[in-house]
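Q: Given only this backbone (418 positions), what sequence would you predict?
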């Protein structure tokens, strides 16, 4: 049966963060949108036409109503859920946001509605975990009364080339008809769709995309560790290797954020439930988790070699967000590096012009520097190649005996690299 699009003219986007807010805006060009978030502060700023995540002002379209009132969701026929999926301290999935969002949507769910999950989850989570909550809260039956879909998000905040419109989007649903209805919605805002044969294929594809990246970075991180032990420059070795046509050009670095450093744990979790312990995946995580300790040791030995004494040395870490040109600090590994350097006696400051300093204090318990004005350091470590840092002349901020350790291979005047 072909569904007429007009029956899906009202769509609710549940969770208006990095993923949900731009999606709601894009869809509002074609549909009536209810933008729902449980955080009243977030609703207020979006109603006021300012997104703190992108730092951009916009005019909220008339077709988009922002709300934190659950009952306001009742008019929607399609619900798109984009709430966080973090991990607990023991690295197991924290599904509390998915649980709550599913309960809220379940409480307003009606016959023939579709609930699409965009949050990253492990295979079978949508069908066996989320759909069950929807059934319980609504009293409706999956694939008889309502349907579920899955469309993993691939956006890359701070990347102007790969956008919601230009990134191929995977869609999958619990029935072919539900997928057709999803297709009619998503093809309005995305140039290219990939129709996955099942929800579980789409869930797994999302996880392995990010796991592959984690592993590729883990390999070059271990290359950095091996080169260090051999007394070789990893930058020179990687540069030489890149001259081969099929060498993958990954660079060493701290792997933080809410995706790459989290998703492999979702995959491990479900596999361990199936009595299988992933080997390659776990080793990649192990290496990447060791990177802050490796860097702290590296800075310490560089300082010793340069005649600098740790407890007399002022260190500046440049960057606090989890990656370049982005203000998101979730799971940033830089606070761990800071702690390890402080343990070795260094006096450490962190500077990142992109982040919200108040939020940083709340998240990590220390105050990042407000500016570099009139400051001098013995050691500067470039951790994020933010455009703002590349436009600075860091030599203005160093003492005569100094180290400029460039983790990102981005500064021509660096004294040291990996
Ligand atoms: N940010 C990215 O670049 C990115 C990329 C790909 C995939 N993802 C995945 O997309 C999902 C969302 O990520 P994000 O970065 O947008 O998260 P986010 O933290 O930026 O935003 C989530 C929003 O959901 C809201 N929220 C939490 N619980 C809610 C509930 N029960 N009901 C309604 N709103 C609720 C929060 O207040 C917040 O505003 C995650 O699973 C993430 O892994 C994110």
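A: Predicted residues:
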């Amino acid at each position: 049966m072909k569904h007429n699009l007009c029956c899906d003219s009202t769509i609710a986007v549940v969770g208006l963060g990095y993923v949900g807010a731009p999606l709601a805006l894009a869809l509002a060009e074609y549909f009536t949108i209810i933008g729902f978030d449980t955080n009243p502060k977030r609703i207020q700023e979006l109603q006021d036409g300012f997104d703190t995540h992108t730092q951009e002002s916009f005019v909220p379209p008339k077709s988009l109503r922002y709300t934190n009132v659950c009952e306001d969701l009742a008019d929607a026929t399609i619900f798109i859920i984009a709430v966080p999926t973090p991990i607990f301290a023991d690295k197991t999935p924290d599904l509390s946001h998915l649980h709550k969002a599913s309960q809220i949507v379940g409480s307003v769910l009606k016959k023939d509605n579709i609930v699409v999950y965009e949050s990253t989850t492990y295979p079978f989570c949508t069908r066996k975990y989320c759909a069950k909550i929807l059934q319980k809260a609504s009293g409706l039956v999956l694939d008889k009364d309502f349907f579920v879909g899955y469309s993993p998000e691939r956006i890359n905040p701070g990347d102007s080339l790969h956008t919601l419109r230009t990134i191929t989007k995977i869609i999958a649903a619990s029935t072919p008809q539900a997928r057709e209805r999803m297709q009619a919605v998503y093809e309005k805002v995305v140039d290219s769709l990939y129709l996955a044969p099942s929800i579980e294929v789409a869930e797994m594809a999302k996880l392995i995309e990010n796991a592959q990246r984690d592993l590729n970075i883990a390999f070059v991180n271990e290359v950095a560790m091996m080169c260090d032990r051999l007394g070789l420059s990893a930058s020179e070795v990687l540069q030489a290797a890149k001259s081969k046509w099929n060498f993958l050009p990954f660079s060493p670095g701290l792997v933080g954020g809410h995706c790459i450093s989290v998703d492999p744990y979702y995959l491990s979790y479900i596999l361990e439930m199936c009595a299988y312990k992933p080997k390659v995946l776990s080793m990649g995580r192990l290496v990447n988790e060791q990177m802050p300790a490796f860097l702290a040791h590296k800075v310490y030995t560089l300082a010793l070699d340069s005649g600098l004494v740790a407890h007399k040395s002022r260190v500046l870490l440049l960057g606090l967000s989890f990656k370049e040109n982005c203000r998101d600090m979730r799971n940033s590994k830089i606070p761990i590096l800071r702690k390890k350097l402080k343990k070795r006696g260094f006096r450490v400051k962190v500077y990142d012009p992109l982040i919200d300093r108040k939020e940083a204090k709340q998240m990590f318990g220390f105050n990042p520097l407000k500016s570099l004005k009139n400051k001098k350091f013995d050691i500067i470590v470039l951790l994020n190649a933010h455009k703002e840092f590349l436009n600075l002349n860091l030599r203005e901020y160093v003492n005569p005996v100094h180290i400029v350790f460039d983790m990102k291979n981005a500064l021509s005047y660096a004294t040291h690299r990996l």
